[in-house]
């Protein structure tokens, strides 16, 4: 028994195409594409009547736990260092395992309702390390989103905390299956001593995965890395052989061209987070210089990839360095395909059936030539009507099928209140 999507306009991002064709899905994959496909006797037929069939979006850098910090009353930090010390790190320290799982469900629900079917999460809960990635996976599993999870290893809590982080990120990577994969994660380079870098290298060799880490989000990363450890971040990462085509560097807003070129030469993925950069006032990352292996992430902001793509494009135009927003979105699919070792994104035979149905009544012709303009100026999460992951409907008629949004919101508010109370009492 399969599912036949009939009468929709099927969208692909690179090369761009918009074509009125049918898709047949069986199991977890697209098995046929063509005009007026004939359904089998047991197939479910979904009449789309001109709606868009869009590839499921990939959030290449997210912080699921941040959903519990929304609206948190906090001091006004005067610098990036103050932001870390007064807000971000105290919040992470206040997370317990129950809060981690609730945040994953709430954040995953928001993500899938916005059209994200795969997200890469870099997690940190220094006082609740062991089991935190498994709890995140459980939360995401409730919603049905695909997840690539890593724990941000750091020396911030001492050697014991570092080793706990390494064990957690390696342990999850070894046992992740199905819709989940694990990666090795790291905190900012200035929080990593030489022993931590060595441990990360050993973890990468053990798991065969790549490193997911923030790089040069603020000039503080280079200054403190040099002061504390004798070399700037890129030198230390290269010396430790931590950069590769499987590595993922988020932010990358403050690197000299010589350092940026060295990172590019390793094949490392660059993860652009323009809304987060603006919100934290750390400056504009030069996305046009990020090369062919660059994608988008939302970091700690709302998990809306359509909004992120629009912000990325418009901010790049303002900087006089316009990016190809369709390539940035399509690269998310290439990254997910690399990690899951399966085609994710192409609306073609053999690809995993991760897709969206968008109820978008275009006011102008929607073609391959105009697709980018519709993504930047028209399409949005408000148009997401249905979401399929691995061939299973997870959202239908704008309603999640496996969780009750009201219950998820109530649990999230309770967890947030408990986290905020622990922050106040610390």
Automatic annotation (TrEMBL):
<dbReference type="InterPro" id="IPR011059">
    <property type="entry name" value="Metal-dep_hydrolase_composite"/>
</dbReference>
<keyword id="KW-0378">Hydrolase</keyword>
<dbReference type="InterPro" id="IPR050287">
    <property type="entry name" value="MTA/SAH_deaminase"/>
</dbReference>
<dbReference type="GO" id="GO:0016810">
    <property type="term" value="F:hydrolase activity, acting on carbon-nitrogen (but not peptide) bonds"/>
</dbReference>
<feature type="domain" description="Amidohydrolase-related">
    <location>
        <begin position="52"/>
        <end position="393"/>
    </location>
</feature>
<protein>
    <submittedName>
        <fullName>Amidohydrolase family protein</fullName>
    </submittedName>
</protein>
<dbReference type="InterPro" id="IPR032466">
    <property type="entry name" value="Metal_Hydrolase"/>
</dbReference>
<dbReference type="Pfam" id="PF01979">
    <property type="entry name" value="Amidohydro_1"/>
</dbReference>
<dbReference type="InterPro" id="IPR006680">
    <property type="entry name" value="Amidohydro-rel"/>
</dbReference>
């Amino acid at each position: 028994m399969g599912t036949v999507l009939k009468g929709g306009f099927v969208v692909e991002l690179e090369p761009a195409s918009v074509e009125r064709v049918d898709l047949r899905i069986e199991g977890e994959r697209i098995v046929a594409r063509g005009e007026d496909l004939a359904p089998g006797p047991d197939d479910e037929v979904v009449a789309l009547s001109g709606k868009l069939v869009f590839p499921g979006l990939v959030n290449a850098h997210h912080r699921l736990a941040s959903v519990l910090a929304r609206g948190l009353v906090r001091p006004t930090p005067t610098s990036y260092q103050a932001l870390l010390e007064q807000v971000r790190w105290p919040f992470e320290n206040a997370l317990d395992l129950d809060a981690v799982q609730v945040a994953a469900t709430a954040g995953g629900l928001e993500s899938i309702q916005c059209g994200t079917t795969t997200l890469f999460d870099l997690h940190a809960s220094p006082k609740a390390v062991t089991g935190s990635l498994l709890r995140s996976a459980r939360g995401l599993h409730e919603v049905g989103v695909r997840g690539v999870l890593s724990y941000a290893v750091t020396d911030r809590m001492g050697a014991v905390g570092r080793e706990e982080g390494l064990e957690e990120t390696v342990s999850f990577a070894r046992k992740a299956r199905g819709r989940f994969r694990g990666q090795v994660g790291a905190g900012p380079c200035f929080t990593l001593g030489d022993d931590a870098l060595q441990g990360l290298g050993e973890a990468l060799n053990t798991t065969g995965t790549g490193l997911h880490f923030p790089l040069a989000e603020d000039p503080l990363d280079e200054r403190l890395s040099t002061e504390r450890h004798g070399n700037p971040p890129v030198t230390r990462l290269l010396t430790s052989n931590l950069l590769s085509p499987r590595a993922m560097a988020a932010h990358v807003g403050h690197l000299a061209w010589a350092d940026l070129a060295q990172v590019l030469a390793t094949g490392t993925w660059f993860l652009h987070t323009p809304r987060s950069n603006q919100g934290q006032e750390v400056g504009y990352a030069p996305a046009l210089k990020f090369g062919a292996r660059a994608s988008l992430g939302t970091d700690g902001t709302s998990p809306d990839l359509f909004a992120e793509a629009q912000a990325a494009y418009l901010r790049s135009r303002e900087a006089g360095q316009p990016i190809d927003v369709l390539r940035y979105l399509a690269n998310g699919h290439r990254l997910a395909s690399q990690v899951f070792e399966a085609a994710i994104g192409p609306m073609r035979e053999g690809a995993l059936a991760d897709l969206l149905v968008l109820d978008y009544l275009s006011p102008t012709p929607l073609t391959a030539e105009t697709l980018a303009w519709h993504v930047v100026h028209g399409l949005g999460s408000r148009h997401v009507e249905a979401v399929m992951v691995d061939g299973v409907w997870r959202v239908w008629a704008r309603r999640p099928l496996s969780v009750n949004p009201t219950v998820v919101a109530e649990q999230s508010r309770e967890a947030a209140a408990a986290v905020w109370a622990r922050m106040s009492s610390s």
